[in-house]
Amino acid sequence: MSETTTTGSLAAYAQAPATASALEGPAVERIAELAREASKPEVILIPTDGLEPGLPARVPVLWDRHFQQVIPVIEHLEEARPKMRRKGTVKTDTLSSFIDMTNRHKDAGSVIFATTAWPEPQLTAVIDYHNTDGTARWGQHRIAYAFPLTEEFKAWIGKNAKPFDQEEFAAFLEEHAGELSVPYDGEATYYEQMFREKFATPAELLDLSRQLEVFVSATVKQGTRLQSGERQVEFTTEHMNGKGEPVVIPGIFMVSVAAFLPGSGEPVPIRIPARLRYRIKGGAIVWFYQLYRWEFFLRDRVQQDLAKAGKETSLPTFEGKPEMPAA
Q1: Buried b / exposed e along 302-312 (16+ C-beta atoms within 10 A)
Q2: Which residue pairs from 274-280 have beta carbons closer than 8 angstroms and sit at least 24 positions apart in sequence?
Q3: Are 206 and 177 in contact (CB under 8 A)?
Q4: How confident is the model over 249-274, as a mean pLDDT?
């Protein structure tokens, strides 16, 4: 009995190495591969019909077979999404809109550049300008304000130093009476001494325009300069007695005109002294005015607006242009 048992045990022992040997090699690898396949998470698409609006038709999740639980994948997909870069230029029409839009988008590295000289004054907020720690950025997300000119300012600049005949000049003064101003005491003292001319009030200029209208068809007899700095022009009418009528011509007057379209507040005018001139040729008179250093006063206005933008946005300001091109 014991012999039989021993013999059977020996037989089993003798067969064991052969069985292990059979499980080695490709078979073992295949079993391991099947085990790995069985434990891999599986992608499952969950339909969203009837749920909240705005969801995609199916939402992917991973099903962990080993732990029998769902693994969310949306947050990992979002991490793999390329970071969006803001670029482009917002164009604003008023200074207040420029300030509001800059405050909406600014960050710690934002700055404001300004071109202050004519003919293209402009403020440009570069939202993604280089950081002060040396980190480079694109500099292509911008907000621009190109100082749109008022029609009144364009009229004064467009006619500056251009000749008028008498009827045209009288009409021009009438049309732009609202931009004529009384000089301040300091302005009157300074410019009258500089030009050796007498300032005209708006009322005096309007009187002049009406007098000129009367003498549209008259010829000019002569022009003389008075001790007061004013000038006199004598017209010869077509009356039979040849009566001459002197007209007093002031030397300078003050233009007070808003250069740029106003925002939410009142427009801020630029004050520019203008010299009134005429030329007499062959009995005809040609009128013109010369705005004194108007580019300087315009630049001063732009610099004041730059300072205001810097103060109300708390951003550093620079006169110049950024080194990188716009988007």
Answers
A1: beebbeebbee
A2: 275/195, 275/197, 275/251, 276/200, 276/249, 276/250, 276/251, 276/252, 278/223, 278/231, 278/233, 278/249, 279/163, 280/220, 280/222, 280/223, 280/233
A3: yes
A4: 88
Q: pLDDT, tens digit, for every residue of 291-308?
A: 999 999 999 999 999 999
Amino acid at 5: T
Dihedral of alpha carbons 180, 185, 191, 193, sign: positive
Q: Which two tokens stand for residue 7?
A: 């013999």
Are 270 and 141 in contact by the 8 Å Cβ rule? The answer is no
Report helix angle 26-39 to 2-23, nearest 10: 70
- What pTM, to 2 d.p., does this model score? 0.67
CA–CA separation, 326 and 130 (whole Å): 14
pLDDT band at 180 (very low <50, low <70, confident <90, very high): very high
